[in-house]
Records
---
Amino acid sequence: MPSPSPGRRPRRLMRRVALSLPGLLLAAAAHAAPAAGQCYADLAATRNFTLGLPRHAQPTPDGRAVLFLRSGPRDTTLHLWRFDPATGTETELARPTGTESLSVEEKARRERARMSLTGITDFTLSDDGQTALVSQGDRLMQIGVTTGKVSDVPGRGWIAPRLSPDGTHVAVVRDNDVHVVTLASGHTVRLTHGGSETLTRGLAEFAAAEELARPDGLWWSPDGQTILYEEADSSGVEKHYITDPQHPATQPVEFRYPRAGTANAHIRLGLVARDGGPTRWVQWDSTAFPYLARAVWPKGRGPLTLVVLNRAQTEERVLRVDPATGQTTTLLTERDPAWINISPSGDGRGRSLPRWLPDGNGFLWAAERNGHWQLELRHADGTLDHAVTPAGLPFVSLDDIDPEAATVTVTANPDRTRTAIYRLPLQGGTPVLLTPEAGLHGATFADSGHTRFIDSLSGADGSAVTTLRDSAGHVLATVPTVAETPTLVPHIEYTRAGTRDMDAMIIRPADFKPGQRYPVVLSVYAGPGYKEVLDAPRLSLESQCMANHGFIVVSLDGRGTPGRDHDWERATKNNLIDLPLQDQIDGLTALGKRYPELDLDHVGVHGWSFGGYFTAMATIRRPDVFKAGVAGAPPADFGDYDTAYTERYLGTPQDDPEGYRVSNVLTYAQSLSRPLLIMHGLTDDNVYFENTMKMTQAFITAGRPYNLLLLPGTHMLTDPVLRAHVDDAREAFLAATLKAPAPTATN
């Protein structure tokens, strides 16, 4: 999906431009506080003060150690660490060595995963917790968790590795085929042959990795004897080429990009023995259900299970697979006339729903029942037994099943802006709160350990802390951090706005003076899949930096955004802009009536990706409200965005041309009358630069002035100098065009 921010989950100006961008930067600099640039520079250099925090922390099955990745406070190179909670000591298990070499395929895979850090970017533990497999670029290492012994896995060019459950083998992809390496001997077996740029084995295709939250294309059987792999044939998918203007002698890179209404990759699943042999193909109606959303091969007696969707994403089936024959049986069918949201993917380490009970007599499943997510226990044949989570506590993710205690641990929403972790009986009952601290919590358990878990908290008090807790939620230890303390403190007021009771967030300057009026900046996403207003102030440091330079920054969650209820999110079906635009304006208007410090005569708007799309629409269509906008990487024409995302909300261009017309920035381009700055990376392979090119051409044709800042790079802005420049340019543009960079007194 279009990402909400270049930092988080811009040519010469055309005719009739009143003021050039360099002029804007100079004009704004005259009014900016002396530390304006330093604030953004610090945020960029520290990735919003997240560098140095523990990442992917995971307890060992016995709960006696925690493994995690961590970089320095101002570098992006991750190392693998072991933390002993009993003594409070940490040990570096592995550090990156040599030069990182990434293939085109691995770069694309990381872009899909929004992975921008370097070094040791991932690790996997064996079931006994004694062996860790770590990845650095295209090389692999195995680490003895208790011994600290480091051994290189023979060979280079490996991507997408998956460690066998017993820690003795690794399934991995090279040259678009699946291989298995025996770790003790280094012996390698190539399981598939004939892979090419358009026929890949063991990798998730674009739609799954980008839009379905499925990064995997390889799965081990619980006994480690068989591998399930995806084969993706993208030969029928449109060719797109990306050229790097900084290196004109380099050939363009070809991508197979499934644009809305065009062909997707054709996928199928194969089962092959670890030591090689013929492939048994899994059989389901992939013509009617072409999207593979999840594949789960559980430990215990539960079966290999798939979750598949039709292309319109209005019907979803849970399939039981017989590995011996590849035959499938439908266990459960879900339907929604608008679209189906895929069941949450658990803790992000492959523990997806459905989750089978160890005895195989049933499985846990989640669906949006009665308007909200709930966790359900279903019989082995798919029929409903009962709801596990109560109706008043919307389910977020399943974190653990403890079969001996007959309990589950879940993350849920105590309110619309927070998450918390609860334990409750498998048979249903009163949830027990394990994490009383307000904010956003995320739990990680070991696969076979139920007594201790990691809690990653972005706190309502502005903290960011990773703790080891026991089964009752008591904090046993805090995983060490080397992150810098933020140099600015968020001044956020959370409230509700308008007749629709929208979640709203108001960020005032640190030196806010009652009785003065401030220009307002709407920091916006306003689209599917992302909620702006969350009680986690660390997510709003960029907005606080902007506010500290003479603005009040506002964010709102209107119709079309998640986290409220089924109908609220699906209100924008077949029209992605009209209701969100009206809601943002209604919310601003309501807040302006309540808070006289909001100068609604001077309102600007900015956002990235879908937020950039919204910004362009708002600036063009409602110049009475928005006096200027800064649109980052906007998908201007959703006919040029990908199938799995776009068709979920708009259908295909062939089926609903009107929906695409009303949702297209180009439809309204001739009406641009306010200053608009567009920023876009020239090598963006998510929202292709053709979107901005089409938009600027429409402005030229209509004789409309615009501003353009071209960026080297992709959809993510990972270079700190570049990101700080983008932040400075955004603020400078808004300060100059809103004509009120300094607050004015009220009457």
Note: Residues 159-309 form a domain with the Methanol Dehydrogenase; Chain A fold (CATH 2.140.10.30).
---
Amino acid sequence: MMHRDRWTLRALVLGLGLLWSLPAAALNAGLNPPPPSVDRKTPQATVQGFLAAAHRGDYALAAHYLDLDYIPRAQQAERGFQLARALKFVLDRKLPVDVSALSKEQEGDPADARYDQLGTIPLQGNNVPVRVQRVSSTEGELVWVFSESTVRQVDPLFAEYGPRLVGLLPAFFFSDTVLGLEPWQWLGLLVTVLGSLGLAVLLERLVLAFARRVARWTRFTWEENVVSSGKGPLKLLTFSALLVVGTLLLRLPRPAQGVFIRIGYSLSVVALAWAVLRILHVSVAFVQSRVSSEMKDAARARSVSTQLVVLRAIFEVATYVIAAALLLIQFEVVRNVGVSLLASAGIAGLVLGLAAQKSIGTLLAGIQLSITQPISIGDTLITEGEWGTVEKITLTYVVLRTWDQRRLVIPIVQFLDKPFQNWSKGNPEMLGPVILQVDFQTDIDALRAELRRILENEGKALWDGRVATVVVLDVLDRTLTVRALVSVSDFSKLFDLRALVREKLVAFLRAHPLWLPVTRTEARPFPPPELDPARLSASPDLPPAPPVPPRA
């Protein structure tokens, strides 16, 4: 008995020795040898290499980063391909991986060198850890791969979070990736974009039709105009929402999903800004039409119209600024720049304030002009020696339409810094002079009577009957300056009445030639030879010549 036990012990020792002398079992022996490009020396290199290969669609290469030893060797190539693809899909959808947070050391995390954990994914009430673990490779060196426990959970995770179309589409749609997306996802994107566009058009028509029916219940036309202005912005807003929802259903990788979320967000901001601008335009036009039809005071109506135009410009600028800020704030680079600028807000504010002093002053002048309203749209002005009507007012300049149909663009600050004439302010009644140069012999009373006759006959439609005077305004060395003063109830008639009075008075003076101004000269004849003062002084027999009066 003891002899048999002794032989058994010897056989056991011999077997252990033979096992010890055999080479270690190869890692993933069912796969081809890994190429030199496969780097599995650190946790970070393993995860980074797996994601790079999987996103390229090279799932055969990505399988070398998985621990497949629990799978029979004959099935490792096929199952490794499938598991690598499924793990890539699950990580992209449910676990954003920060590769920089993983250990760069060959020994792994000093706190726990057994494994390095990427995170956990919820599955049926439990949290499945996703880890990379250090194991022995074929050459006997230690390498990092996704642990066996993690790989065993890939199929359940893919069944929970993977696409439902795997059994409905051919294998071609799941075999490769283009720009990080598989063919079925590209097909889904095409269907999503076209379907979202079609649904957006249909929903816009239905919503606008319902809104128009509701708007007809009121007696105002503003609601109908607002509903009509929603055509376009509503479609864009609906399309952006459907696009985001559709891409979420496609379960795209996080980078691609983030791109479509930003596109949807940007389109939504543009749609809302577009809608606000259209509603502003419709509202201002509606109020202006009501003011023009219901306000009897024309000056007050022009004042309200000017306020509406300037306020609309202010709100439009604010809408553009807010929309641009909302679009830019979604980018991390812009937010970082904004934080940096805020850190140096004192210096930046001073520099920008000095650089934009004139521009900011112009904008403030436009706002001040809309509040104080020294001018309004439609006012008649005289500025810079030009007579015209205010055609347009913006936050920076005013367009003046002159009497000869020219457009004079004037900086808005000029109306706050320099004097100008506004004929539309206050009472529209005005006085207008007609200046004439006449002879000293002119009968001023006859001119007064003629002025009265002209106003009561030819100028009856223009004259308001208040003022009709003729006065001698100045006495010059050769003529009299006469001023005929007339009045009108509306300044728009003043020019025509002055021109009429000037024409008729000139015709009246032409009928009295002696009243027209003339240039007078005085001629004196020379004395006869016998009365020449020089000869008289030389001859004592002749009487002295009379003195010659001095020339006037």
Note: The longest strand covers residues 126-136.
---
Amino acid sequence: MFLELKAQATSILKGAIQKAGLEIEDSELYFETSSYADLASRAAFRLAGLYKQNPKELATRIVSAVEIPDGSCIGNVSASGPYINFHASRLYLDRTVTTVLEEKEKFGCGVPKDKILLEHTSANPNGPLHVGHIRNSIIGDTLARILRRAGYSVEVQYYVNDMGRQIAVVSWACERFELDLSKKPDSAIADVYIKANAELDKNPEYVKEIDALMEKVEAGDVRTIDSFNNAVSLAISGIKETLLRLNVVHDKFVNESTFLKSGAVHDIVERIKATGRTKTDKGALVVDLSDYGFKKTLVIQRSNGTSLYTTRDLAYHEWKAGQADRIIDVFGADHKLISGQLRATLNAIGIKEPEVVIFEFVSLPEGSMSTRRGQFISADDLFDRVTEAALEQVETRRPETSCEFKKQVAEMVGIGAVRYDIVRVSPEKSTVFNWKEALDFEKQGAPYIQYSHARACSILEKAKEEAAWDPSAKIEPFLLVEDTEIDLIKKIALFDSIIDLAARELKPHVLAIYARELADAFNQFYRFVPVIAAEDEKVRAARLALVNCARIVLANSLDTLGIAAPESM
């Protein structure tokens, strides 16, 4: 709804500027939210510079030329110094309520748009996902959900490293040490991988065996390839279990080796050579990207002729470029340099570049993590710890409920707390995940938002039981005139613009913040305004309808964040 409000404000402002005898580009209307209006424009500042006139006088002149058409979402327009303020009409408020009730889970969805191929997580299959990995998964999955709601067709991919050095170590380890298959498969792989690295540190001569395995894979040795595939398949099966518990699903798992087997890696190396950018450095083939601002060269072939992860990644990106209109990669901060070099190289050979979302790392109060050294807390262990703590809270709050109910709610609250606490921070900021704070119902994290949704469900259920509400009855939204009612309606109306903003800027934390603010607005409304206890039947019906609107948009927000919306807590 807010996008419609903004579109109408844009049309009205452009018409008034033209009527006042002025001209300005649409991009220079400079709309922003304001505490003094529903929408404000700084266009007068820009016009003052263009026409060498006083911005305050220009704002007044433009407002005097404003014409608001009948049936507009804009109620009135006023000048406040150099600012031009737009205020929503009653029609806007009423239409927001009726539209949410009509569209339900579709409310906030954009019109169909382009196809996007989004890659995220892509952790090496040398052990289970740990806390350091899941920020990638959560940001990537939430972005995919936001983009889909915004109208894009999104395919989510996981790029599987099935032939690099780390996988050679895993394969070597599986031959050398016994796998404990009573464990989750990715944990069993981690055990032997850690043992193998300790062995390699003690006996560096074994490194030659690792190099030999990598050469055999590139040469197409069937036995070695099968050994790599078996180890990778085991690890990936465990990783998929973890992702599913986190409510993260990939549409496709794409193996690195695919592009070596197809000849795509060889082809792309030859195309890069044809640019004249390559040279030999200590036997390795490197790419000069100095004209793109990179002092460091990019290695695309080792001295023994084998390819690198980067080389195969270039071939993967060429393939992706033909699969979608846009490509988005979610990478950790340690990929900042290499992702920049990858984009530059693709640009140099005329291939569509990916949009890259770089995130800083998440850690636990215990410190940083390394699978190689065996110093990590797996995502599975974290989820168990968080849901166990959530279960204690549910048992305290709802002791009368069944064990099954308690466990179900604890899982929803625990996983929701993890997802929300990680995604609420802007990707470019590092964060420490403190699971105790994330589970605090008073801290306005996921449990707070989930509880607000459950409260709305409870209110509506109680109203049904007391025969105080007929969901199918016609309502009169214009009866919602209290400040907290209007504030809640306006917050609900913002949902489509929040989705639009998060999709355009690839910033999932924007939605997380909105969901918390929506829960705040709903709780403020319920605190100050009687709902079921309202004496006037029509007012009661309108307020229950507003509770239902809040429930719908809270559920839509949580779903887009990948968080369950429990009906009871």
Note: The chain has three domains: 1-88, 115-373, 379-561.
---
Amino acid sequence: MRLRTVLNELPITGSYIHDEDLLEWDLIVSPSWNVGSKGVVCLGSMADYLQNDAPQTTDGILLVYVQGVLDEEYHKPPRNVVFVTGEVSPSDFQEAFMRLVLKSGELAVRREDLFRCYLDSYDLRQFARRASEVIGNPVVITNTDRKVLATAGEIPSDRPDIAATVESGYVSQSVEDHLAESGILSSVRSSRHSIITTNVADDLRCVTSIIYHHRLEMGRFDAFEVTHEVTGIDLELIDFATSLAGLMIDRLGVAGKRVDMGSSVLADVLSGKFEDRDAVREHLRIADVPLDCNYVLLRVVGQPGAGHDYYARVGQLVGDALAGSVWTNFGSAVVVLVSLGEATEAGFADYESCERRILRDRKFMGALEHNDMRAFVSEPFSDVMEVRARLKQCILLDEADVLERSSRQRVVFFWEHRFQVVASVFKGLGYSDMLLDKRVVAMARYDREHGSSYLETAVMSVRFPGSPAEAAEALSVHRNTYFYRVNKIGELFKLDLKDGDDRLALSFTARVLEALGENVVDAGVLPETS
């Protein structure tokens, strides 16, 4: 039993201790009067203390009770002595202290039960359920993104703040503001142990404890006084459960953005679990992501078959490089939401600003290059709730296999490979034939069989409209040859290169054919020509 718990369980009005660190000492409560030994707290009188002087460092703690007021000369006791004051008689105090002998045994059993809960639990929900049974009151576990990771016990439905938290899956801003403005969070952080407070809105006593692991804040473990009154022993149990929850959160990698474990909010939006737009915006604001601007989504992939730990490190690299972004592990990749800032032009400059934002970030580009990773970038968008659709774009861009395997290009933009993606999607569905203007297809077939260059000529006529000289130069042919081919295109394939619709059909089909690759001929996609 910690010395803090011993003092919390006794009927005292004041305590005087050498330093606060002693409160965290784990001690055995001794039933023997004034017999000290290492790791033991025993009871003695002021006469015992004056007669025997302070116990040695290895003798544990001597607890001295004084009824009434303690003389000021004893306000700074030796390290192994604790003076406490109270209104009860010495005999009543001694009786209360002796009851702690039995309670310390019960505490040890319950601590062991909590540890077994941790060992036997495969996720936080199971741990919370079993921990709540040991603690005897309902609990809520949240991470640094204020996401509710687990709840357990009979949480009253008529308490508005608690009910709203459980229902939404996140701690509301109003609750967080109350905890901050009242000084509760700062008190818990400075003391590093749980504190009993009263939730004003719900008129309910609760215990607030911050989860730490390796000195990093991982979230909160809150218990609510519903089933029975919270005691000093309960506080020690909650602190122990909090430390175990920190181990589980670290193991599961769900601590949240603030400890570089990825954004819980982004993960929930991507998976469709969190669809409250205002709440999402609020949590992104907390994560220092600019609002009311344009964004792109990046899907960063690295080593094939790499697991969660690998991508957790990737996420930390990416998140550190791209300021004003949030990331999460999602599937076998890291997904990053990047702010592009507000649109300042009447037209659409997001493609350019995105390329500038990403390609000029030396730290980010270096992380991709040095770790052999590639980033697939979605179309820009302004509504944060569009991230699921934009993630689909990134995945399709990857699956379209738009780059040669030997390519060293590290960033792939959707808008630069739109036709390849469209072709890949329709090909996967078995509908690629629907995209193709058959006159252009016949032209491609003819060129393949006869070694001609009609399709290339037609494409250059579109690329250099109204400029036969530039088109001929691009083809490395004489202007007369160019005009001859253009005339033959109309004659052989019934395509009028002066007609806007025909030019559009030609350009689109040519890009799709390029995306489908030459193997479409062998696969029977292109019809035979006579």
Note: The CA atoms of residues 400 and 424 lie 5 Å apart.
